[in-house]
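ok posting inputs for the nicotinamide-adenine-dinucleotide job
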Amino acid sequence: MYNIHCTIKHTEKESIDKNCKTTLINMKNIAVIGAGTMGNGIAHAFAQFGFQVALIDVSPEALAKALSTIEKNLDRQVKKEILTEEEKADALKRISTFKNMEHGVKNAELVIEASTENPQVKLSIFRDLDDFCEEGTILATNTSSISITKIASVTRRPDRVIGMHFMNPVPIMKLVEIIKGYSTSAQTCSIIMSLAERIQKTPVEVNDYPGFVSNRILMPMINEAIYTLYEGVAGVEEIDSVMKLGMAHPMGPLHLADFIGLDVCKAILDVLYQGFGNPKYAPCPLLVNMVTAGHLGVKTGQGFYEYQGKEMMVAERFRNIS
Ligand SMILES: NC(=O)c1ccc[n+]([C@@H]2O[C@H](COP(=O)([O-])OP(=O)(O)OC[C@H]3O[C@@H](n4cnc5c(N)ncnc54)[C@H](O)[C@@H]3O)[C@@H](O)[C@H]2O)c1
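and the output
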């Protein structure tokens, strides 16, 4: 009912208006802010398909680690015969790194922000980007949960701000959820949909409401799986097995929650709860306790499972529930 489609077909390659000089044909310089898990994957994907990429991070260590991760992931593509050695070397050459954001975004026709999921950090970055970037530059964010409309509102170009929600790991996952803020123009949406196709992704267009589509559906499922454990309906392995074997999910919801990070799951549920004012999204008390105790999943080695190197077993406190 509320799904307003872009009026310009995203395959139209020469759309241009008087304010926006960015077209699909001339776009070749991309800047990526944040060189963490998602930023390095986004930089990899664009460099692989011929774009010049400026990868920007406040942390020199993050930049060094990102380059080494990208090289390792490109190597994997060479082994699988997706790329040749020469194509791998060319992709790496297209990536430059910057600590200074103003220098890094100088020539960018598109900036994709993939910094820490913190509204203050993102709003401050977008205020600066609006000052540093050319008028026609499109500003995209990879946020998992923060309102695109809110981010756009701190710029003077809300029509050129959009969500590009890539999935982890970026070089492998096909989906990019394209989120239109309240003021995002049809032209911006059209350019970004086509651009995602140029890097062989499948863009899906959605509107800007809490959780967009992906997390609005995924997080309540994960929360319900945690409630199922909390209420003693079944144990960790049983819940994950039902969803893997019965619903053909590649990973059970509790394992997936550990992989995403329990703090991230809780933060997204909080956004849904506050955004809709509906108690059905309130994080399960067990999830709240685990986050408070610092049991955040894979990244801390403890969540619903315990992780030691490549080994994984049900966490001790959940072993006698079945
Ligand atoms: N990890 C996932 O599975 C996933 C999936 C989809 C979307 N996202 C979203 O992508 C974004 C990044 O997530 P991530 O997992 O890559 O985080 P991460 O913590 O791995 O990386 C964030 C990077 O941003 C850098 N950073 C922080 N403030 C900065 C600033 N002011 N300027 C430049 N760099 C800055 C940090 O140094 C860090 O290297 C978040 O918005 C997150 O919600 C994450």
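notes: Residues 129 and 140 are 11 Å apart (CA to CA). The chain is about 45% helix and 15% strand.
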